[in-house]
Amino acid sequence: MNPPTNMSPTVELSLAELTDLVAAALTALGLSENERHIVTKVLLWAELRGNSQGLGKIPARAVSPNPNASEISVSRRTAVVTQIDGNLNLGMVVMERAVDEAIRSANNASIGIVGTRGTTTSTGAIGYFTERAAKLGLICIIFGGTPKAVAPFGSVDSVFGTNPLSFAIPTANDPLLVDMGTSAATWFGLLQSDRLNEAISSDLAFDSTGAATTDPGEAMRGAIRAFGGAKGSALALLIEVLTGPLAGGAIAGDETHQSGNVVIALDPDLFGFGADFSVRTSLLVEQIRHSRPAPGGSQPQIPGDRSRAAFEETMRTGRVKLDKSLVEAIHAIADE
Q1: Are strands 165-169 and 139-144 parallel, antiparallel or unpaired?
Q2: pLDDT per position as a tens digit, 194-249
Q3: pTM (two decimals)
Q4: How far apart are CA 192 and CA 51, in angstroms?
Q5: Measuring CA to CA, which residue among 225, 217, 213 is closest to residue 191?
Q6: Domain range enclosing 55
Q7: pLDDT per residue as tens digits for the range 63-111
Q8: 196 assigned to some structural domain
Q9: Residue 282: left if φ>0, alpha if ψ -120 to 50, beta else—which one?
Q10: How far apart are CA 333 and CA 15, in angstroms?
Q11: CATH number of the domain within which 131 lies
Q12: For residue 278, how many other CB atoms are within 10 A of its CB?
């Protein structure tokens, strides 16, 4: 493995060219028009923000439809709670439906909680979905269950998924957005490092023998560490319980129900203080932004600021730079 250089050859495309290329590749993978519409939005949202949940999913064929899929169904619905069976449909398509259901319940009953199960493909960057709800004036939280790849603290066996979480909160300006995994490295980040023949830090993962490794391929055959030691592992455990036993999704060693997710949407006026919610939240954000930096540190950052700035710059120029090998891999699928 070579050390990371961040000097891989790049190509520049217009946003229109990139969108057409993605649509062609997804068509070649067999997605319907509705599936392409949803998946394209989610993948580009991530890619244009530097999120690892972007276009690398196409050459990894992590967005390929399952030929055995049947119609998404609702198995339980109350005023607040909805249970969705994805029936092997694409994770992003099921998540779009789940967020729609959560928004509907929150608008009618001030809170909406949706559980999903029965998906075998990635839900993508769940920050796309929480931000969508926040732009409609709702607080949104999503817990994502994923295939097993992460070792609990003190173990070298993969028991947890990478188990991302995201929350988005409306403010007087752009939503406050957090989108993060509970693993020390993301699965698709490892895939990218493996594709570029780049080494990873030795404190991120174990190989299949339980030894620390700098080889991303070995890490994917072994187990990723949870971020933040015991505390990150505890958070991953919480998400594992919510998306597995609670929502009916898979747990380690039992993939019968496939991946599960939980979506929560809240009306900011839930407790009767919604009139000044956005203003007070914005005040809190500004207090953080203008707090004194730690010695040797940069200016305090608000989660999502950098990724939003990257996205806005791409929107301004209409151009995007991508790793050349990634573009070639997507072209290869589009040309099939």
Answers
A1: antiparallel
A2: 888 899 999 999 999 999 999 999 999 999 999 999 999 999 999 999 999 999 99
A3: 0.92
A4: 12
A5: 217
A6: 7-64+304-336
A7: 999 999 999 999 999 999 999 999 999 999 999 999 999 999 999 999 9
A8: no
A9: alpha
A10: 19
A11: 3.30.1370.60
A12: 17
What CATH number does residue 316 fall under?
1.10.1530.10
- Asked if 156 and 54 sit in the same domain, the reply is no
H or E element, residue 285:
helix 277-289
Inter-residue contact 29 to 55 (CB < 8 Å)? no
Write the secondary structure of the chain as one string of H (helix), E (strand) and C (coil). CECCCCCCCEEEEEHHHHHHHHHHHHHHCCCCHHHHHHHHHHHHHHHCCCCCCCHHHCCCCCCCCCCCCCCCEEEEECCCEEEEECCCCCHHHHHHHHHHHHHHHHHHHCEEEEEEEEECCCCCCHHHHHHHHHCCCCEEEEEECCCEEEECCCCCCCCEECCCEEEEECCCCCCEEEEECCECCCHHHHHHHHHCCECCCCCCEECCCCCECCCHHHHHHCEEEECCHHHHHHHHHHHHHHHHHHCCCCECCECCCCEEEEEEEECCCCCCCHHHHHHHHHHHHHHHHCCCCCCCCCCCCCCCHHHHHHHHHHHHHCEEEEEHHHHHHHHHHHCC
